[in-house]
Amino acid sequence: MDEDLTASHWDDVLLPSKNDLSVSNHFHSLAIDDPHRDPEVKVEEYDLDNDRDDHNDEETPYDEGETDTALELDRSSQQGLYSSLHRSFLPEFSASAPSEFEQEERRQKNAAMVDQLTAGADKLELEAASRLVLEIDSSAALFADKGSPIKIDSSSNAAPQSPTRAPALKNGKLRTKRFRKYPPLTVVTHLKGDVAPANDPLLSAGPDPSKDSRLVSGASDKQKEIVKDMNAPLYDVPSASESQAQDHIGSGPLLPSSEISTEEIILENGRKGKQPTSSASYLKISVGDPVKVGDITTAHIVYQIRTVNDNPDSTVFQGSESIVSRRYKDFRWIYHQLQSNHPGRIIPPPPAKQTYIGRFNENFVENRRMSLEKMLSKISKVSCLADDPDFIMFLTSNDFANESKERESASGSAASHASLADDDNDSSSPSVISSSGGPQGFISSLFSMAPKIEEPDEFFANKKVYIQDLEFNLKTFSKSLEMIVTQRVETISVVEQLSSSFEELADVEILKKTKDLLSAFANVNEKLKDNLERVNLQEQLTLGFTIEEYLRIIGSIKYVFETRTRIYHQLHTFQSDLSKKEESLEKLTSKYKSSVDKINMLKFEVDKLQQKVAYFSENFKSISETIRSELDTFEIEKIDDFRNSVEIYIESSIESQKEAIETWETFYERHNLSSV
Amino acid sequence: MASAIPYDPDDFENNNPFAEPEDNAPSPNPPLQYLTPHQHPQYHQQYQQTQTQTQYDQSQAHFQAQGTNGANDGTGNVAESHVDPEQLTDLLTKKELLKLLPERFQKKYLLKITLESIEKNRPTNPIIRFSAEVQGLPRYRQSTYKDIRRTYSEVVKFNQYLTISNLEVFVPVIPLPQTSYPTGGEDETKHLLYLWQEWFDRIARNPILITDEELVYFIESDFGYSVINSKRRSAVASGFMRKTLKQLSVPYDPFLDLAEFRPMVKSSYLLCQKIHKIMEQSQKCDRLLSALVSELSTKLRGLAQFEQVHPGMKNMWEKFSKVAQTQAELTLVQLVTDMVSIGDGVEALANDLFEVKEALTNRHLIMREYLQAQAQTKAKQIHAAKLKSRSSLDPIKVDEAINSLEMSTMAEENLLRQVKRISGEMRFERKEEINFIEKKFHHLLKSFTLNRVDHHRKLLKHLESIRLDVRIIDAKGGLSRLNRDNLTQMKHNLSQSQAEGGDSWSSRTFRSLAVEEAEKEDRIKKRDESIPIKVDAEQAASLLGVATF
């Protein structure tokens, strides 16, 4: 699996500059053979403890290590040396390690080993890595720009220094690319829960998420964010000064300069992160062509998603267009995946599930298709969601079934379970992963014994009430709309009957003139029926559709609230624990008699709890902030959406009234009824 | 079948399906003119002969046999009538019609009934107040009668009497006491006035009905009229007997138009009933829909109250709710007017058509009676012939035979005349009825259309009036302003589409409602100008009729 991703990245990178083909091919083959990985890893195994101390680049496991080396080499422009180094590795290794080993096996082994090694450290490592990547990125981007005429000059300035620069940069870029597919990293987070705590010596080093399995998702989210940070600047063309710096650094001494530039770019990154220029607003997504596939037992509808990327600079979304087919389940998957990736964000939800019967009803499929399209386009408009690697994967991957599983297990989101076990009452069901229970889940609250905690923020308390009221209002509105629609269907059938009866009466042919009149009247009724049908459809598609969508979004909001409450609960528990422990610690320390061991134990625990509390309170703060801003956007969007749908509804009703008037007037005029 | 009745040429005359009472059919007429003078003396002569003796001319017997054959079997009759010029004699000639239906050709009778008002009584039994003007009709003591008051149930009885005693007429059915308009409202009164005037006009225009003796009592009697000739029983079978007789095959009908009329009327009647049922269903649907829409309006109001963030949205929801409320009310109005125009109209038509159908059935029954009488006469004749051929003649038996033959011949003749009169009259009536139905349908559909146009126009107006409320919610100005710069300078195209000069969406300048209005005003003006001029019934009807829409 690792291989696939690598390959695709390679291909992508290769596309713009063909002249590097031979080199990259060379490297590619190397990567596949993995000759140099083992040695490196082994080295690290030995050096691990030392490495940890100075959180520096050298100790990086696996990818990072590789990159680091590459980076250093980059900086010194000693590509020849580097490649020769690699080349020297290759024979060495192939001599020492017999090639009868299955390549796959070996890689997996390696990966597992690396995982174990890197387990606890990933966060810090990642940060370090991201810095590195950023640094390399800027140069890589510079290089990638080579194709465009404007940039040629600047790059040619740098070029003369060594003829082998281009391949070197290429290498660097390729490596950084590797960061963007994190299977190893994500695997780490996944494994961490079970394996890492036991043998990772670094547990106490940072806020340790691995002790509490619940934290996994949170931690992984953090990772994701970091990964995103890594991704974000990839397409950022470095500013002139920066590139100058780069040039300068490139010729300067290795490590210190890289430090400096890292700092710079972090700053840069922080700035950019707030106004991310991503592929987001340029994605045009259309869902179409619903096709029924499978036999009786597995029949389902497959929708084709066509994504057009109008932002060629985007590096998140590779290529300008992709067409993939997904089924409804997959949409649910991406929804839950995004939910767990972005706690606090209101994710545009997919349409509600449908009972078995009527799944292939034309209207239903069309309605669902529209809802799905709306969902995707809404997601793509929120930049941080649109840049979510899972979302990109969802839009582009050809092997969705496997990749989704992989990513799901990587992030621990259990999205597919959530989508399986799912939400007939999307809104109130607490997610499967954590059973600590929101205020709604009675059973779960019993189990977790979580005391009901007062909402700390009045804003949220108010909002919760507001959302509930809104939901109630919308629900009743939607219900009465629905009833109108069904009633109108009945009216339509009556009009149809009337029309056919008049047609029959016309056929009796009392007089030729009367016959014409009656059949014309029947005809008018026929038209009226069509008109009514259209009105009905219009009502469903505008008001009904929007209300349904908002009911679903409210479900999402509720979910977000729950996530927040859950975090708050945990924070609360830890806080109370902490105070208890602190009390007992105080008692113990005030008594001189108590053993040092115990005190130390307690101190250790208090420390840990403090870390946890700090972590959670930060988490809680950030999620609260996100929710606040999300709710604001929700309000704005709500106004916009409802206004638009009401406007469309009114305009279309105006048109249908005009049509009706026209029909009747024509009938009146044509049959000269004014003379009667 | 072989019976030869000497005075039977009349029967022959009955036989041509192409016969038209008017002389608008040129081809059968020339032989007719040539034959009738020749035929009639013969008829009288033969009639006298039968009174004195049972002997008859052999050749004529042969000739007659052919005729009856044709009349009874109805086979090859049309072909024969083409082949044999003598067959054409059986046309209902104008002369004969003159004799049979003198009322149709006398223009001297005139009855004008002007409805004055409908007084409130019990809801199912209103009092109808009208005045009448009589010219040339016998037995009336005055020429004008004022303030005649009849309760609904009295009129019902009178109507029943008319149906029973005038078998040859399609007696118009009286309107229903109530309409679908809200009870006691102005609209209902107007509509009822129109309907009653229509009924009186139809009665007064019918030459046979105005000569009915009961009409004299109906008009002349004081308050508290009851049918004087109440002893008159229906001349035709009724009840179970009627049902049984209806099962038998229809007797041969020499008049194609009348023969075709009954099935047509019957299917129209059934269809009208069906339409009425559908209209009722539609009324129910609309009522539910209206209730639901008004519920939606309250929901919208709730949403508006809930919307605190954006005043524009609040305003939009409120306005939207108001429009929904108006829509609900308009739907209610629409369902009432729909029901009045098509629902009630079709119901009245169905009742009318039912009466027509029954009258046609009565004709069939009388025709069957006539056939029976004919068969009886034939049997009597055979009996008499047998007696005659015997060697020894018993004078008592001969007398008896002759007498009974005479009797049955008389009865047969009587029935024949009745059949002829009914057939002749019904051919007039049929045309009138068809015209009436046609007119009625035009009228119904017209009022229906006008109501619908009105409904849609009102709704359109209301919908257009809230456009701005939707658009001003934000500076973007709604979807209509999408992707346009200088929004502040752009004007909203919010003008009402139903301006004075015609509808903006179409090039058609004609507008039904405007035309109606103009006509109405015209008429009112005319009436104001011509107050001294007598308003005749028809004009009054049209005036009243228009007033409801």
UniProtKB/TrEMBL annotation, chain A:
Residues 281-402 form the PX domain. GO terms for molecular function: phosphatidylinositol binding. Pfam families: PX, Vps5. Residues 46-71 have a biased composition (Acidic residues). Keywords: Cytoplasm, Golgi apparatus, Membrane, Phosphoprotein, Protein transport, Transport. It is a peripheral membrane protein. It is found in: Cytoplasm; Golgi apparatus; Membrane. Residues 29-77, 150-172, 197-217, 405-437 are annotated as: Disordered. Signal peptide: none annotated. The keyword Membrane applies. Its main location: cytoplasm. Residues 410-419, 427-436 have a biased composition (Low complexity). Transmembrane segments: none annotated. PROSITE patterns: PX. GO terms for biological process: protein retention in Golgi apparatus; protein transport; retrograde transport, endosome to Golgi. Residues 153-164 have a biased composition (Polar residues). Residues 31-45 have a biased composition (Basic and acidic residues). One of its GO terms (cellular component) is Golgi apparatus. Belongs to the sorting nexin family. This is PX domain-containing protein. It comes from Australozyma saopauloensis.
TrEMBL record, chain B:
One of its GO terms (molecular function) is phosphatidylinositol-3-phosphate binding. It comes from the Eukaryota. GO terms for cellular component: cytosol; endosome; retromer, tubulation complex. Residues 63-75 have a biased composition (Polar residues). Pfam families: PX. Residues 140-222 form the PX domain. The keyword Nucleus does not apply. Keywords: Protein transport, Transport. InterPro entries: AH/BAR_dom_sf (IPR027267), PX_dom (IPR001683), PX_dom_sf (IPR036871), Retromer_complex_Vps17 (IPR014461), VPS17 (IPR053055), Vps17_PX (IPR037907). Component of the retromer complex. PANTHER family: VACUOLAR PROTEIN SORTING-ASSOCIATED PROTEIN 17. This is Vacuolar protein sorting-associated protein 17. It comes from Australozyma saopauloensis.
